[in-house]
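Appendix B. One record, verbatim.
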Amino acid sequence: MTQDEVERAFAAWKGRYVWGVRVGAESLLSFEGGEPRLEVNEHHDVHGELRREVLPRGGHRFVVFDARFELGFHGETAATDEDGPGTLARAAAELSGQALERVGLEKGALRLEFDLGAQLRVWRHPQSEPGALVWQLVSEGMQLVFRA
């Protein structure tokens, strides 16, 4: 993947706020951006009762999967993929509400920089299987997937 490809993929997201920052669960880190819409998922619980989960989703979604990452603020590391849930949750909360300013590739790592001083670096986990999904960007009908 080249710098130009990354720039084009994130172009629609620049200047937009990050929200819905989540750590853990199905991915290591994820967040939404752009205009919100509701995603409704219906399923039956173990007793056969209909349940409905309503999630706000954005026009843009970024997800970190099998990767290493570092989230910092004003040049200081606040959390990494190896930190505990409390540290990750505090860092995620601070990332929420910041607008994406710059994106780039730096020594094999994706680097996202935000307007209030947040920086996110994401790179392949050294123990990942070949072809493992590292991160994914879904933006306005376009999907960019980075595999190691």
